[in-house]
Design a protein that fits this description.
89 residues; alpha+beta; Alpha-Beta Plaits; 34% helix; 4-stranded antiparallel sheet; globular; 2 helices
Amino acid sequence: MAEKIDTDNIYIDEEENYVAVKVNTKIYRMHSIMNAADEFLEESNFIVDGDPENLIIVKFVPKRRFNRQQLADLAHKFCTLLVTFSSTR
């Protein structure tokens, strides 16, 4: 039986039209987090907050209304970019 992947680092609020992603800074450096978030500037505003030594929360607020799946897709693309930027920069 496959083990379930913990995705508790993503919080979606469809009613308020945002998605928040918790990022472990022991795995990802701040410049990778900021570079990954920057890729969404055309479609979303974002807020970065938290403790750079532990945990950062990146909240994306799309510039237009997103449904739940679109918010989840945004979060997953951000997480994918985190890995990409961490391995190449």
